Structures are given as structure tokens and as C-alpha cells.
Amino acid sequence: MANIINYEDNEQQIIGLCKRIRKFAKLDRIRLDVSEHQDNRNTHLFKYLDYCGVSKEDFVKSYLSNLQPYMLSEFKEQEKATNTICVLDNIYRVSLYIKMDTTFGKELIVSFHENHKRGIAKDNSKLIKNKSDKVKILADSITGGISGTNKKTLDILIPRGVINIPVSLVGELQTDNTFLVSRNAIDNAVLDVCNQYIRDLYTSDLDLPALDEVEIFSALQQISFTSYGNSVFSNISLLIDNMSAQNSPLHKTSAAFALETYTGHLKLTAEQKKELVELITDKYRVSYQKDIDTVTNMLIDIINNIEPEKLIVESNQSDDTKAIDGLEDNSAPTVTLKM
């Protein structure tokens, strides 16, 4: 990809850019453009955020305000205007494309979607070798110091998908007011969260022995933005990522069986079925896999064949405050496995 400046290529430039993004994200007046772009492939993450029941603008501003320099590459080719910032967050299976207009008084987050070229996404899962373990970060909180050194104990939030993962680590204060820390320590903390979740899906929710027959994640670039969360769709996304991460046909078959089993045992209302099919269709229009259509068509067939759950309305509530059992206002559907 032409005209990309990575953190390793120009550390200070990317640090300065990250500071600017974090600063602009905290402005009350900055707004998020949620309109559909010409290619019609920029809104699937916004639909996912709606599904998760979060405010799109508040979420994106919070996400940008917690970015770290090592995550980013500057996409110079896309910075046509002087006041434009364009970066890729590369710590996903498919990079996150972020574009901002920083014109004073007209500050706007122009784009926030998975990166692609005419619907074909670049798969980052092969780009897992880091040049150096040591990276500079911007600290959210300094919790203490190590006597006789310039090392500090730090708390940071790592935004991944719709969740912020708290990480505590030791960093060495630098002259530019950043802290030099272990990249592996951060990545391993996030991987531990993801791998524990995939273990729980296999062993607790699915009650399958398949965990012994699949590989867990070994790099954050194997995991998609939509796989971080606690919703039915994020679970499906995570299981698809895990299936894609398998290196042997036997492991891939086991992971595919787990995906089919999970999806086939969902309890969904007719509206939830419709919403889930739309999310799967929109998400995988931006694809990194040649055979993803086979997987998504299989999932959609399974979901369409699920017998819809009936809505149960609380009878002791007033007409305008009645709640649907299993659904909360502005929340993702609550779904249980029927084993």
C-alpha cells in the first residue's frame, strides 16, 4: 500500500499524530459523520454499535481518545487537504480506517470503518512480527514509581472493538513525556482476555471437547474489531476469526463445528433473527477471506431455520412502559443457549 508511514518508520511523527487525534477527540464540538459513503461499505460498524446499544459518536470519540501510537500508521495518500488526518489502526485482522477533518470550528470524524479497497480487505493476520518489543505509549494514569529509577507503574486502557481493556505495566519515562514499555506485555494482556473468552465459549457455553482440537489466538492481528464484545454477533465474529486462525484441516473442521453448534442453538425472536442476518451480511461484504461467502451463507441458513421465540410482555406494567422479556432498552439482544 503506497505512502504509508508506520510507527517503526517514524516514531516521533506517529506519536505527534496520535497526540493530535486524542486531543481533537476530546473536543465537545467535534462531530461524527455517519452518512453512507459512495461505496456503501462504510456503515457496518455503525450498525454494529447500534446493535450493541452504544452512542456512536460518544463511542468513537472515546475510542480515539485512548489510541496509542504503536497501533497506528499514517495513510498519507488519503490526506488530500492540509487539515486532514488519516490513520490505520493495524492491531486487528482488518485494519480500522480513521479519517478526521481538523479545520477549526468544523472538526469532524469523517470515517470510522474497516479498511478495504473495493470491498476487498487486507488480512493483517500474517503481519504479526514486530520489529521491536519496546514501544512508547501515552499514559492514562501513573500509579507509582520505582525508587532510584525513572520507571513508573502505569494504568492504560487499550480500546479493542467496543470494550476498553485495562492494562497495568511498568514504563520508563522519556524526554518527550511518553513511557517506554513492553509491547508484548500489552499484547499478551489483551490476548489473555480473548483466549479466555474463546475457552469459555467452547467449554462452558457450548459444552464441547473441541477446545482440545483447535488452536487459540497467538496474535491480535487474528482478531476482528467486531469480535471484541459480549453479544451474540461478537461471539459469532470471534468464532469465525478462530476458525480462520486454524493451521490444519482437522482444527478448522472442529472450529467450524463449534461455530455451527453455537449458531444453531441460539434462541432468537423474529426481529433478532432479521437483525443478526443483516449484521452478518453487512460485516462480511468487506472480506479478507475468499471462502467467506460459504461460511456466511451457512450461518444465514441456520439462523433462518431457527424457530422464532415468542415475545412475552409483562402484564403488570402500563401500556407505555411494557418491556419485552429478554430485551432491554438500547441493549444488544440477550440470548441463551438451548442445550
Describe the fold and architecture.
This protein is an alpha+beta fold and 339 residues long. It has three domains: 123 residues, no CATH class; 53 residues, no CATH class; 133 residues. The protein is built from eight helices and eleven strands. The chain has a six-stranded mixed sheet. Strands 7-11-10-9-8 form a five-stranded antiparallel sheet. Helix 2 packs antiparallel against helix 7, helix 5 runs antiparallel to helix 6 and helix 7 runs antiparallel to helix 8. The longest helix is centred in the middle third of the chain and has 23 residues. The chain is globular.
Rounded mean pLDDT is 85
Bin the strand percentage: 15-25%
What is the number of E strands? Answer: 11
Strand order of the largest sheet: 1-3-4-5-6-2
Q: What would you call the shape?
A: globular
Roughly what percent helix? 25-40%
Rg over alpha carbons: 21 Å
Structural class: alpha+beta
**Annotation field: number of helices:** 8
Major β-sheet annotation: 6 strands, mixed
Question: Unreliable runs, pLDDT <50, ≥5 residues?
Answer: 315-339
Number of domains: 3
- The SSE order reads EHEHHEEEEEEEEEHHHHH
The first-to-last residue Cα distance is: 47 Å
Question: Can you describe this structure in just a few lines?
Answer:
The protein is an alpha+beta fold and 339 residues long. It has helices spanning 11-25, 44-52, 56-65, 183-205, 232-244, 249-264, 270-283, 292-304, and strands at residues 4-6, 31-32, 72-75, 84-89, 96-101, 108-114, 134-137, 141-145, 151-160, 163-173, 179-182. The strands form 2 sheets. The protein has a 6-stranded mixed sheet. Strands 7-11-10-9-8 form a 5-stranded antiparallel sheet.
